[in-house]
Every structure is written in C-alpha cells, then in structure tokens.
Design goal:
heterodimer; A: 295 residues; mainly alpha; MetI-like fold; 16 helices; B: 322 residues; two-stranded antiparallel sheet
Amino acid sequence: MSARTDRGLLAPTDWKRPSVRWSARISHGLLLAGLAVAGLGPMLWLAKAAVTPTQDTLRQPMAFWPNGFDFANLAEAWTRVEIDKYFFNTIALAAGSWAVQLLVAATGGYALAVLRPRLGKLVSGAVLATLFVPSVVLLVPLYLTILDPPVVGTSMLNTFWAIWLPAGANAFNVLLMQRFFANLPREIFEAARVDGAGPYRLFWSIVLPMSRPIIGVVSVFAVIASWKDFLWPMLVLPDPDRQPLSVRLPILQQFVELDVFLAALAISSLIPIALFLVFQRLFLNGASLGGAVKG
Amino acid sequence: MTSTDTRPAGVTGDRTGPRTAARPGRRGGPLARARAGLPTLVFLAPMLVIFGVFSWLPIGRAVVMSFQRTNLVSDPVFVGFANFQQVFADPQLWTAAQNTLYFAVLALLFGYPVPLVAAVLMSEVRKMRGLFSALAYLPVVVPPVVAVLLWKLFYDAGEDGVFNTVLGWFGIGPVAWLQDADIVMPSLVLEATWAAAGGTVIIYLAALTGVDPSLYEAAEIDGGGVWRKLWHITLPQLRGILLVTFILQIIGTAQVFLEPFLFTDGGPANRTLTLLLLIYRYAFTNSLGGDYGAAAALSLMLAVVLTGFSVLYFRLTRSWSS
C-alpha cells in the first residue's frame, strides 16, 4: 500500500463538509451498534447463559443480569457430561488434520514449485482440477473408501485416520503453498545449491523458514475447518467415545439439562474464538482470499 | 517479507513481495539434476498418495457407482441408468430441488446486500477499523454446530423464547420460527446468513481498499458527489468480486446440509428437505437402506451443475491474479 494516499470514496474535502461528516459518523455509529448486537450479542448471551441456572434462562432469557450464578454448570459439563473427552477428541482430530495437510501441501508445493519435475504441469493440473469438484460428490465414494481402503485392508471406520488422511487432499492448500514457493527468490536456491545443499536441506533449512506467513495461513484454515466439520466425522466415527464436540453436541442436547448444555456449547466455542482473537490478522487476511469459502 | 504475496485472487491491488527480477531458464540450471531424481519423488509422494486414494479415485468411483447397484454385501452390478430413473421418479427430488433453490434465493436476498453496505461503510471508518472487522467476522469462527444449536434456542416458539421475548417488547408475536411451514425456511436462511456474512464483508473490504484512489480524484475534478462516485466508480470496480461471491454463494447454498439437518431434519412436512439432505437419506438412513447408487447418481447430477459454476469462478479469479 505504499504509493497510495490514505483515502477512499470520501475525499478530504468531503470530510470537511458537516453534512458528510455527520452522516458518516451516524452511519458508523449505527453500524458499530448493529455489528456489536449481531456479532457479539449471541456469544455474550451464551456466556451468560452458561453460568445461569436453567430456570432463569427459560423464564427470562433476555434478563441482563440473572438472579443467580451457577458456575458449577461448567464443571459439570466438563466432567459428568464428559465434554472433556469430546474436547480432546476434537483437538486430536484438528492436530492430525493440520499435520497431514501441512505435510502434503508443503512437500507437494515444494516439489511442484521448486524442484519442478517433468510431469509437474500434469500433476498440478490434476490437483487443481479437484478444486472444481464439489464436495458432495465425494461423500458416498469416500465413505466406501474408508470402509474398505486400498492396501491397508482393514476398515478405517471409528479411527481418527478416517478424518486425518482425507483432510490432506486439499487442493487449495497445495495451490497456496505452490504459489508462495514459486515467488521466493530463486537466486537463494541456486546459491544454496552451489554451497552443496541438496533438495532435502534446501526444503528444511531454507524454504520452510522463509514460508512462515503461508504456513500460518494454512494452519489456521486447517484447525478451524477441522473444528467446524460435522457431517464427515458423524459418518465415519459412529462410536461415541471417538466423536468430536460437533458430532456429540446435538445428541447431548436431548438428555442434558439446559444450563449444562449451554455450558458445553460455550466450552466448545472457546478455542476457535481464542484462536481468532490471537491470530486476527491471519484470519482476516485468509478470509480475503475468498476461495477459502468454497466447499 | 510481506504477506501480500499470499493473496492470489485479485483481491489486493499491489504485489510487493519477494519477487525476483530474473529467473533462470526452466531447463538447465543447477536444479535441473534434481528433476527426475529420487528426492523429487519423495516430495511428491505424500501428495500423490493422499490425492490418489482420497480424491481422484473416489471421484472416479462416484461416476462408476452412479451406474451400479452397490451394497456392502454382494459385488456391484451395472444397471445402466436405473439409478437416475429411480431418482427422477422420486417425488421428493422435486421437493428437495425446489427447497434448495428457495434457500439459495433467500440466501441471496438476505446475504447479498447487507455485507456490501456494511463493507462500503466500513471502508470509510478511520479509527478502530479492526474492531469493526473483528465484530463482523466473529460469527464466522463460531463452530457452525454451536451456532445452530444456540439459534435453535433463540427460535423457541414459546413466548419466552429469546427472539419472541424481543419481539414481545414491540407487541409482535410469538412467532413459531421453526414450526410454521411458511417461516421455517427464512428462519434457517437468517441463521446461515448470520454465520457467513462476515466472510463476505472481509472479501468486499479487501476489494474496496484495492480501488485506485485516482479514480475518485478524477471524478471529483469532474464535480461528482458522494453518491455518484459510489454508483459510477465503487460499484463498477467491485463488479468482478461481486460476481465471485455470487458464484461462491450458489456453490455453498446448493450443498446446504447442516441447517436443515440440525434445525428441522427436513421438516415440517418436508419444507426444509434439501438436495444434500436427500442424498444423505438415500445413502445413510435405514428407512431407505443404504441406496448408494441413487445417492451417487443425485450427487453426480448436482456436481455437474456446480462444477460449471466452479469453472467460472476459477476463470474469473485467475484472470485477475495473473
């Protein structure tokens, strides 16, 4: 943004006109209020309801201050309802999906962008082509692949591999990595080569350390996407002991008291929201990629 | 190093990254030796294996399966177009197609203008723009299942439901958000829009900061006011990105599953039965008993339509990033 003057639609002269200035201020104030109500409101309500007794939430859901607090909800959700187990399942699923996605995208992107094998164009075309295929196509055949995977021989149903491995087949990650690596200054590779670094060394000591920004973006996408996933884990993890929060919560709703259930919902949102607050810039930069929305 | 280079798709203007002035020729050069060797294969292997087993093969299998009768016990049998005929003969298909289309149209009505207006306003915010973006994006990071289950409480049909309490302050309601056959779909779309709009706002915001200020300056010299600048410069400059979000939204809403599944499970009276829910029922619920062939056939037909949109999306974004 170097050569750009700091202005947008409104010119500095526009800002000097009181009518423009005031309508801008008022509309910004309204927008901020609207965003606070719509964006923050439901989560604040959830935070309050998580520590409020059921009766209060049912009778006066919009009361600003509850009659009493019940912090035991959180502990009860964590231990008696075994949210802890589903929480750690969710973390294990996210961690494994992250590792597989990063491994596949980093090595694949490196091979295609830096080593450039002879059939590289063909391979990267085949990877890119999967971006066009909507995820709905994969649902049934991928499920059957998990039931009867090639080579392995035994079903992957109810194992975390059924989530981790398919997560790696993410063409968007490969594309991001490949583009980033291709834009790294090639002289550095040549210099490293002259100094005797082989392709492994080049990858580990030079390309990866230079690629922290893109690794960050891919990591955030990977963890959040895994945390959000519902349909696929529901299909391949029918065993309740292995299920993540997203799959378990709708079932819990049927037999857990409301206040404890709301505490469970609050606990489930904690990590994604915390990650967002810490890595805001990565999230927002990532969101502007646009393509990330594609399913 | 800036992170600018990590954004492809024309959503940012300038590219000031670690670009090199001169690149060695594609053939020759010291890296040439590595090309066909073992190391290259080692680096390619994870991608080839994972994509092969979990992407390329299943895609091929999806096509084959839609012409087969498959169950988990006996070997699959080729049945020609029988699966397609069966799907077309199912009266639920038309219900599901209509509902999905209705969802998509409503999602465009709700979800298209609001983020645009919000982004245009936000792009003129001078202080604390980060706060605005963070608030707008927060619902996007809430896990969708949590969001739906929370909104299910908000949508409680009783007078003490959260939304009905608020409406009650104005003497309206109570509304049977999820039970009334005419209101249920807008209710679902409202939640889905809440959950997704923040992402669209951020996309528009990035595009708005990419508009060349000299265009505005030129318009001002010609005496253009704020509204004329908005109409003749801002919106035309956003035309491309507006088309992209339009296509992304079509692809997304055509595959909507979570909201109808968790809110209503297709009800009341199939009013929220969507195509993906129907595919799910064909394949995975007992009443119809694992009809993988029909599910594959319907998936394939939906996919063919959506792939057209995907190709269009890719063409648009690629033509800007090159």
